[in-house]
Amino acid sequence: xxxxxxxxxxxxxxxxxxxxxxxxxxxxxxxxxxxxxxxxxxxxxxxxxxxxxxxxxxxxxxxxxxxxxxxxxxxxxxxxxxxxxxxxxxxxxxxxxxxxxxxxxxxxxxxxxxxxxxxxxxxxxxxxxxxxxxxxxxxxxxxxxxxxxxxxxxxxxxxxxxxxxxxxxxxxxxxxxxxxxxxxxxxxxxxxxxxxxxxxxxxxxxxxxxxxxxxxxxxxxxxxxxxxxxxxxxxxxxxxxxxxxxxxxxxxxxxxxxxxxxxxxxxxxxxxxxxxxxxxxxxxxxxxxxxxxxxxxxxxxxxxxxxxxxxxxxxxxxxxxxxxxxxxxxxxxxxxxxxxxxxxxxxxxxxxxxxxxxxxxxxxxxxxxxxxxxxxxxxxxxxxxxxxxxxxxxxxxxxxxxxxxxxxxxxxxxxxxxxxxxxxxxxxxxxxxxxxxxxxxxxxxxxxxxxxxxxxxxxxxxxxxxxxxxxxxxxxxxxxxxxxxxxxxxxxxxxxxxxxx
Amino acid sequence: xxxxxxxxxxxxxxxxxxxxxxxxxxxxxxxxxxxxxxxxxxxxxxxxxxxxxxxxxxxxxxxxxxxxxxxxxxxxxxxxxxxxxxxxxxxxxxxxxxxxxxxxxxxxxxxxxxxxxxxxxxxxxxxxxxxxxxxxxxxxxxxxxxxxxxxxxxxxxxxxxxxxxxxxxxxxxxxxxxxxxxxxxxxxxxxxxxxxxxxxxxxxxxxxxxxxxxxxxxxxxxxxxxxxxxxxxxxxxxxxxxxxxxxxxxxxxxxxxxxxxxxxxxxxxxxxxxxxxxxxxxxxxxxxxxxxxxxxxxxxxxxxxxxxxxxxxxxxxxxxxxxxxxxxxxxxxxxxxxxxxxxxxxxxxxxxxxxxxxxxxxxxxxxxxxxxxxxxxxxxxxxxxxxxxxxxxxxxxxxxxxxxxxxxxxxxxxxxxxxxxxxxxxxxxxxxxxxxxxxxxxxxxxxxxxxxxxxxxxxxxxxxxxxxxxxxxxxxxxxxxxxxxxxxxxxxxxxxxxxxx
Lengths: 501, 501
Known about the structure:
The structure is a homodimer.
Chain A: H1 2-10, H2 30-34, H3 42-55, E1 66-67, H4 82-92, H5 104-115, H6 132-145, E2 156-160, H7 161-173, E3 182-188, H8 193-201, E4 204-209, H9 220-231, E5 235-242, H10 254-267, E6 270-274, H11 291-297, H12 300-303, E7 308-313, E8 326-332, H13 336-348, H14 354-364, H15 374-400, E9 405-406, E10 415-416, E11 419-420, H16 424-432, H17 437-449, E12 451-452, E13 454-455, E14 468-471, H18 476-497
Parallel strand pairs in A: 1-12, 3-4, 3-5, 5-6, 6-7
Antiparallel strand pairs in A: 2-8, 7-8, 9-11, 10-14, 13-14
Helix pairs in contact in A: 3-17, 4-5, 4-14, 6-14, 7-8, 15-18, 16-17, 17-18
């Protein structure tokens, strides 16, 4: 039956009619259309174009594009932690167990992980919540981190990076057809995974604004305000916290965390605590407090009732192993029947990547002082974290010396989120072009200097304030050059749009 | 403010009141509740319980649980392909480039992959669609597989296993608030990822039944019937095909594929072709035909218009690398604007795991006859595929010799899906227990023999027919024992419920 058609058609290839497609912008799931994800948005596509243009011999006022848009440490030249890679390589190719160039400390960890894998192979599926011995190591790590607060390994679920865990938990909470009545409280500015997930699930984004004038601290009164306002049109069910903050770099005080947990308790909110930067604290007067430990210290009434999920990842900290897509979540006080539903949902995707699970295991079970590998491991770790602390300080100092830029201290995480003054003339020009003023600013910065940063509008900000997010990950030398270029660009941008040129 | 409460509470831990939870079975997203995933369902949880019981010294009529429920080759003792693991280990720990025990063929591949990674590290994020050189290798592989049919690397998207790709494409197609009017045509029996995804997205599952009496072939008339019936209550927009079939083991003929594509063309359906078992064809009279190649051969009217996505994976074939979560999809004729939306959606999850991408690269770019590593690679590959072919035949033969079991030939993939006769008395007993008759059967099989297989009801089957799915992955010796036990169990089950005992 097709043969006739076929022979008719082969001669008239050029006459093939334009047939309407099944999947078009009109028929596409509108919730997908609504998703925005600035960290890899239009500015990053533009950066890619410029990179290709340079590669093909094109010329620009700069020789390379510096991608300060994403927390991708290795891409910025950070070296992997040797011990972590040794363990994962041993798991991948167990013949290396016979190699004298691999340390015994790494070998026994690799053996132990493989013992937990089906057929002793990284190529088998794990149970959907992850390899059992890795879950146990994570629980032990959490107990140590939280100075004895108990952690049950059956509450630990390995994930494909933290993003996967966050999406999964939101999927449980955002209620199908009623989605547009489910409120999800998120900080503004926020990491745009949250807004993207909320759009995709058609839930209601409930913004609570962080206090820029107070180092981006979370203000409990603002939380109350946001909640009460949201209750007029939806049912807020979950509060998301990012601590240390992305993009703000703020590290929350214990008192602040207590207030949030008390609020969640009073209002019956499910707490999602994004703690992927827990090892990235630089300011000497700041310390990471886990939501779980603070909850425990608030007493049994709280610790036995507030539903809390905390997320961690291999991608940040001192390892920066983004490509392994490793992570975990600890789930506290979840209804046992709901937990069974969570396991079912995870099982549809089978399991997180085993190499990422192995990488996570090294992070929670690193070399101990009595082990031979400790010294090198400790040196590498300190070197990464020391450099990050230095870069955090440097970034804040240089940016604050620029007229029209104000940058809060980078207390933790991997980003600066400076406020930039954009002259009214530039704001008008942007509006005429149908873009956000900080998008215009960042596009100009990219085109004139090759520096790729993300407009503040991608993270959310108060009306008529403008920011950008940049990572502090480039090497000190490169960061110095980068910040110098930002300063020069900013001054000339101000001049241009203030009519001083 | 909390301190008072805290000191009050610490003394009355035991008196903590039961506070209502935020997330309960009543408030859980009902679409999550609706999800079913038999491959890791209740029978597998039961198998885990029995395993733990045995480990703790409990006794059963058997000494081990054999998990024939999931296509997890390495867990069943299949050895990894050496060359693949060498390349991934080199990428993970590039210091091994200096090791004389790694072949040059593996080293240059690893170097090339790392060249394509940010900072030359597997620890950096890749572009969301995957590492560029790997996408190019995949396109070259497809062109070779399809004897010259062009493949554009920009149509290739790496995924986190095939499941991730399938979910992502369905997410584009199933239209938000209108979801319950979007029909997704799937074969029955099917791989339950499809029904799970449809439940989660609240779309309409449109069943087309495969023809058991004709080796589970797809019958075009049945496709028309299912489509017309579905049109009464929804808009069928997509047709899913699994070829070679899971769980059926059927390999589709070229004629059959032409008919499906013609049907999709006429009815404007988006085609999702799950081709993860493309390397797993055993029957001498069968051959894998890719949907894309057949579409091409139908002429430009078809090849330039039918929207088609094909999925592949590292988890199956001769590598069986499930734990790496590698995979890709090739997207044909997708509207360019929709493609941009796809990239945006993928970017929210950042990227698929890099080790899985590297594993995928080895599969599409294996050692060539002129390379030193070819011989060993080829031996290992042939050994795995040869054994699978033998096991496919063995399974069919032994099962068909059992009265009350009828098994179609396992032409491809990794499973047998035999039809089992269940006596009316057993059917009644199952109904009284509120379970499917084949669930009762499989639970009894597990409890009496330690063999874990999945009831046919988890995949879908015609009313009043019963099946189970078992993998053919155990070693020949183990498979012989397993099939013998199934035979003995079946005979005694028949006796028991036919009142002959």
